[in-house]
Amino acid sequence: MRRTLTALAALAAFVVAAPAPAQTTLRFANTLAASDTHNEAARRMAEILKEKSGGKLTMTVHPGGELGNDNAILEGVRLGSIDIGLTGNPFFTQFAPRLNVMDLPYLFRDAAHAHAVMDGPIGAELLKDLERNRMKGIAFWEIGFRHVTNSKLSIKAPDDLKGLKIRTTPNKAHLEAFKLWGANPVPMAFTELYLALQTGTVDAQENPINNIFANRMYEVQKHLTLTGHAYTASIAAMSLVKFNQLPADQQKLVLDAALEAGRFQRDLNAKQEGENLAKIKAAGLTVVEKVDAEAFRKVVYDPVAKQYTDVHGREIVDRILAVK
Q: What CATH code is carried by the domain that includes residue 100?
């Protein structure tokens, strides 16, 4: 009996002393304003992770370039010093060139078409390409359809872009399109853009309405034209090493939470776009809402698409066009 009591006491001591289940905190980084829909969605994702993991999996959100510019964030994800990074699809194409298909000008009919591609088998296939560079694409989010602002003139036709020094992403499709329109595209980190516009280092930039508003570009520009010349997805990508270290249930939770937060973010984008366009007008910008999109498309679609298909073939482009 004495031996039994001793054994039970030892077992009780072991149970009391056993460590609590490990807690993991992920760091989520991007360069967008804290008020941007991406960061609202990131905070939503953090809430989902904490709630559904019972506090075992938490996430801190670092907006506005706190952890570096877009390229630095992606390098941090690849090295494992940043757990999750989010930026526009164009920045990922240096690691997974097939992703450049998403940036072809005038490829997507509308947002619903883009969402169907991203959330379906084509999107999953493209995200998998990132694993060769130690990143796990966990979800497509949305930056949206891109429009042009500038400090010089109202752009109503492709020829109006000639000679404009315009900040673009470093994406091949974006660069080639603006060269074909006669502009002078200048790739530049997003974190440097406001100052570059303010000082006149560049005349123009191109971003969706919500980005233009959230990052106060209306303060340093005079004209906005709703060209809708390209759709830009954003990608939430996780360090592949970090993802693989998580138990299977937490891996699934991360993927599900990223997808749910991405849908939440798209809904916010749709809701806020009209409101933010009205605020941009109220700030004094001249807005050209209707342009002949076909005139812009005719200059760039075939040559830019050919630049892509010469390298990657037509198959994925045709599959995207066939998505209903």
A: 3.40.190.170
Handedness of CA 245, 248, 250, 252 (dihedral sign): positive
- In the β-sheet with 84-88, what is the strand arrangement from edge to edge? 57-62, 24-29, 84-88, 231-239, 135-145
Q: Name the residue with tokens 């979800």.
A: 139
Contact criterion met (CB below 8 Å) for 265 and 38: yes
**Residue 171: φ, ψ to 5°:** -75, 135
Question: Please, which residues bridge with residue 239 across strands?
Answer: 135
Q: Does residue 314 sit within a domain?
A: yes
Whether residue 158 is contained in a domain is answered as yes
Nearest to 171 by CA among 150, 186, 192, 191: 186
* Overall number of domains in the chain: 1
User: Does residue 25 sit in helix, strand or coil?
Assistant: strand
In a domain, 231, yes or no: yes
Amino acid at 150: N
Q: What six digits make up the tokens of 4?
A: 């039994």
68 sits in the region (left: phi over 0; alpha: psi -120 to 50; else beta) called left
Q: Record the tokens describing residue 268, joined without a space.
A: 């916010």
DSSP string, 68-87: --HHHHHHHHHHTSSSEEEE
Each of the 324 residues of the chain gets a pLDDT tens digit; together they read 455 444 444 444 443 433 445 799 999 999 988 988 999 999 999 999 999 999 999 999 999 999 999 999 999 999 999 999 999 998 999 999 999 999 999 999 999 999 999 999 999 999 999 999 999 999 999 999 999 999 999 999 999 999 999 999 888 899 999 999 999 999 998 889 999 999 999 999 999 999 899 889 999 999 999 999 999 999 999 999 999 999 999 999 999 999 999 999 999 999 999 999 999 999 999 999 999 999 999 999 999 999 999 999 999 999 999 998
Q: Report the C-alpha gap between 154 and 141 in whole angstroms.
A: 31
Host domain of residue 34: 23-322
- For residue 11, being part of any structural domain is answered with no
